[in-house]
Amino acid sequence: MTRPENWAQNHHFIAGAIYRPVSTDALRHLVARAPHIHAIGSRHSFNGVADSPGVLVDLADMPADIVVDAAGRTVTAGAAVSYGALAAHLEALGWALHNMASLPQISLVGAVATGTHGSGDRLGTLSSAVAALEMVTAGGDLVTVRRGDRGFDGMVVGLGAFGIVTRVTLDIEPSYRMRQDAYEGLSWQAVLEDFDAVMGAGTSVSLFTMWGGPVVDRARVKTRLGADVAPAAFAGGTAGAYPPDLASADHLRFSTPFGVAGPWSERLVHMRMEFHQTRHLQSEYLVPRSAATAAMVLLRNLGGRIDPQLRITEIRSMAADRLWLSPAFGADTVGLHFSWEAFDVPAVLGLCAEIEDLLRPLGGRPHWGKVVFGEAAELAALYPRMADFRALAMQFDPAGKFRNAFLDRHVFG
Ligand SMILES: Cc1cc2nc3c(=O)[nH]c(=O)nc-3n(C[C@H](O)[C@H](O)[C@H](O)COP(=O)(O)OP(=O)(O)OC[C@H]3O[C@@H](n4cnc5c(N)ncnc54)[C@H](O)[C@@H]3O)c2cc1C
Fold first, then answer.
1. Averaged over 60-87, what is the pLDDT?
2. Which of 16, 60, 133, 363 has the highest local Cβ count within 10 Å?
3. Using a 6 Å CB cutoff, which residues line ligand 1?
């Protein structure tokens, strides 16, 4: 029997079945009866975080039912709705999210459950915008937890360990317009010496680079109209003729537009909804901002070994938050992301393990949705509230109904 796979085809789900309930009542019934069950989103994680030794539940057939609360400045939507669909809906109504990831196809709950982020010195992770979660708990009960409730900060980046989330409420704000500009050939020296100025050059700055060359190859700078202005040039880089991370004309067609103002929903993501990237592997390490330049110096030293396996690295920033397993818990944070070509998988995985070990002493947290090696004890040292997370998850799920091999290895130990 062919096992279902994740997007990158590097994880084959061991779960015996995938159920697609169409109503909350059907889901409650399913959860109450299953000895082991776990929720799956759009399967974009590069590991088994969404797997189960029992069965899986996919909420894609549940209604999205997007409801805006204008007075409360929130939107509530079905957990499986894609960020792209949610953003388009909000923009049509004159509302906006504070940030988005590079890819619009990921599900709302899958993204927030793993601490997914975009870039922006003043912008928190996507998870930081969560105001409430409605979920089915282990006994089949439907509960809602809200920001400020006891344990809420532990449950947002929840890795599926607390229950099956059915609806998510996010903070929203009035719609705004943005533009994005491309730059190329930034000086590594300038980036390392004045990293704050580089990352502060716009509302959302992403650097794209290989590690061994003399320059940071390219940058995307996204500026919010009325708040920031795109610089003419920065860090020795000049305005680029081409969008930064796009290798081919085909990719170019599917990028969100450059050099012209437009709605936030078509600028914060890098890719358009209809674009599906070619398969590859990803790993990412989230380091405290104070350690970012030291981390980049270490990686530059490995450039000769990293670059032959690398498609591109993306460097992004995010504001600190209070969510226990968030990559940005407690400190402004920099994401050092690697899109790996998957030609030589053992070599790529060896490099991922080596980089994770190298950056751990600097506080480098591996992204929960990407390639992860750290054992629970090692990761607990990076997350001051890990013990609280475990205790809360066991309170919600004493029999381990939502546990899986990923959680056992990397969280519970
Ligand atoms: C091409 C590509 C680009 C990416 N870009 C970015 C990026 O820009 N920034 C970034 O930070 N990450 C990025 N990622 C990683 C991605 O955002 C995360 O892996 C995210 O978790 C994917 O969401 P998903 O819907 O596919 O969730 P899945 O991978 O299916 O699941 C992830 C987690 O969510 C949980 N979950 C799903 N549904 C529910 C539910 N109903 N209730 C409770 N828990 C649930 C699962 O149990 C699991 O723990 C990218 C990945 C790919 C493949």
1. 98
2. 133
3. 7, 38-45, 49-50, 59, 79, 101-103, 106-107, 109-111, 113-114, 116-117, 159-160, 164-165, 277, 282, 367, 369
